[in-house]
Amino acid sequence: MNIKIRLTILNFLEFAVWGAYLISMGLYLAGEGLGSQIGWFYSVQGFVSLCMPALMGIVADKWIQAQRLLGLCHALAGVFMIAACFYSVSAVGNVSFGVLFTLYTLSVAFYMPTIALTNSVAYNALEREHLDIVKVFPPIRTFGTIGFICSMWAVNLLGIKSTPYQFALSGGLSLLMAFYSLTMPACPVNQDGTKKSIVEALGLRAFALFRNYRMAVFFIFSMLLGSCLQITNGYAATYLEAWGALPQFADSLMVKYSVILTSISQMSEALCILLIPFFLSRFGIKKVMLISMLAWVFRFGFFAIGNPGSGFVFIILSMIVYGVAFDFFNISGSLFVDKETELSIRNSAQGLFMMMTNGFGATIGMLSAQVVVNHYVFNLPEGSDVLPGWQTCWFIFAAYALVVAVLFALLFHYKHEPKAE
User: How many other β-carbons are positioned within 10 Å of the β-carbon of residue 76?
Assistant: First the structure.
């Protein structure tokens, strides 16, 4: 089978696993009386990313071929996610935060490294075929987003968006991915027998990238922008369904199909991936990252002024702009790291990028967002109108993204040299 098709299937399954619960999980938790803990469930994805992606990247660089490690991680993630479903079903109405959170955390701990590993496996396969990664990979990655969308739609249309069966769907897809990843081309490991220092043996050379001013600033701002990544994943569906408290909007499409509506964000993401080769070659990484940061400003701002009635167009615009916000940061950043690092530490560098974005950034961002949302929304007296509080939250998040954008424009130095046509 053509390597592009094989990698397309790989990316489809990789993100279908995540899409089965990432957007809808908050609705289930709220229904089980765990609404106040939503932030912890989303922030733990960032917490485990502080070490797991970098650790697995080191293992892939030094000892286990990346495609095999990818399969092992998915097998473990799938088993723990299915266990979370079985427990939730058996304890319906009396779900323990500690038990569910532990099973969920173990699953996520093994899933998060697979994003960087999937990239490494794909880059290796394309290099073996002497294909241009910058041009060929984005369309392949698009099908990862399509996989995410398909899972979201399945969860909403099957009526399991507020049930633990979304965990079973995710776990089943993860086990399928575990088997499929073993069919990928073998990735090299660095076993040349040369005596290495402790730093090199542990794969910590990637952290030496912080000695380079440009790379240090890049990784720091990756963390600051990563703070935005999980906010709408954790709270968007809850916010959209909050409009159902108003009689005139109780049966609106925005409320009934909140998860499907949110999938427009991923549709935009799928399309915007195709723009990356053009924007990177024409404008360079600095301007592309800056565009992403400004897109986050509009993402949050449109949420703040939107509603199911006359302001519905702003909700749609918020979904559309998400593609630029996410892709121009996540995909372009990964390609930048691949281009700027040596082969011997490339897997480790990808893991470090994940650590800064989905690790420090997502953890700090989600826990900070939880403080803001709890203050303006969930800590209000019962029966209060929470919609003005939601509006304030979205404006605060938009202001944060704007500050990050301005600082990045001033501090990140990168001279782009367009390729000759």
Answer: 17
Of the candidates 287, 317, 288, which has an alpha carbon nearest to the alpha carbon of residue 300? 317
Task: Supply the range of the domain harboring residue 114.
Answer: 3-187+199-411
Query: What per-residue confidence (pLDDT) applies to 80?
Result: 98
Q: Which of 304, 307, 305, 275 is nearest to 292 (CA)?
A: 275
| Tokens describing residue 391 | 């509006």
Tokens of residue 377, six digits = 């929304």
Quick one: which H or E segment has residue 340?
helix 312-340
CB 21 within 8 A of CB 259: no
- pTM of this structure: 0.81
- What is the full DSSP assignment across 102-133? HHHHHHHHHHHHHHHHHHHHHHHHHHHTT--H
Query: Looking at the 3D structure of the chain, how many domains does it have?
Result: 1
Residue type, 55: L
Tens digit of pLDDT for each residue in 361-397?
A: 888 999 999 999 989 988 888 778 889 999 999 999 9
Alpha carbon distance 112, 130 (integer Å):
28
CATH, residue 237: 1.20.1250.20
